[in-house]
Amino acid sequence: LRCMHCYARAVSESRETELDTAQALTVLDDLARFGVPVVLFSGGEPLMRKDLLRLASYAVEKGMRAVISTNGTLITRSKAGELREVGLCYVVVSLDGMEEVHDHFRGQKGSFQNALAGIRNCQEVGLKVGLRFTINRLNKHEIPGLFDLLEHENIPRICFYHLVYAGRGSNLIEQDL
After folding, report:
1. Is the separation of the CB atoms in 102 and 118 below 8 Å?
2. Residue 44, Cβ neighbours under 10 Å: how many?
3. Do the beta carbons of residue 47 and residue 70 sit within 8 Å?
4. Which run of H or E residues covers position 160?
5. Burial (Cβ within 10 Å: 0-12, 13-18, ≥19) of residue 91
6. For residue 71, with 0-12 CB atoms within 10 Å meaning exposed, 13-18 middle and 19 or more buried, which class applies?
7. How far is Cα 24 from Cα 28, in angstroms, rounded to an integer?
8. H helices present in the chain, as ranges
9. How far is CA 86 from CA 81, 90, 96, 110, in A?
C-alpha cells in the first residue's frame, strides 16, 4: 500500500540498507541478551519479508513474545495459521477509519475489506488481534464507526496513536491534533 501517513516512507521493493536474515537474527540475539520481553515486527509491511516466519519463530525460541503490526491485507487463512504455528502471540492491524476513509489513507481501493478479511482469518485460527488507529484531523470523525466495528467483529482492543512527523507523515503536520 502507499499510506499517506507512513513514517517509514515505505516502498514495495527491498532496499540495500535492509537487514538480511543473518543480520536480523543477530539483532534478535542481542535483544534476547538484553532481556527484551517483546519484539514487534513492523514496517512498512512486515509480511513482505520472506523470512518473517523464521524471524518470529527465532524470537519466540529466544524467550521473547513476537507481535506484528500490519495492514492486514496479506493475512490469508493459511498465513494466519503459519503465524500462529511459529508462536506469534498478537497481531495489530492498522485501520484509519471506515472503508472510504481507510482506502483513501492507504491509497488503494479494497484495502479496508482486505484488512477485515485478515482480521477474521486471525480470529479463525485463534490469534489475538487488535486495531491500531493513527488519529488526526482527517479521520477523527471515524472513531464512533470504529467502536461499532470493534463490537461487531468481536475485536477486544484498539490503540490510538499520534501522527509521526517522519516519512510521508511529515506532509500531514497541519492535520495533527
Report:
1. no
2. 21
3. yes
4. strand 158-161
5. buried
6. buried
7. 6
8. 21-33, 52-61, 77-85, 99-106, 111-124, 143-153
9. 9, 12, 29, 29
State the Cα–Cα distance between residues 32 and 61, nearest whole angstrom: 10
Please state the length of the chain: 177
Q: Give the largest CA-CA distance in the chain.
A: 45
CB 67 within 8 A of CB 38: yes
pLDDT tens profile 108-137: 999 999 999 999 999 999 999 999 998 888
pTM of this structure: 0.88
C-alpha cell read off for 59: 524470537
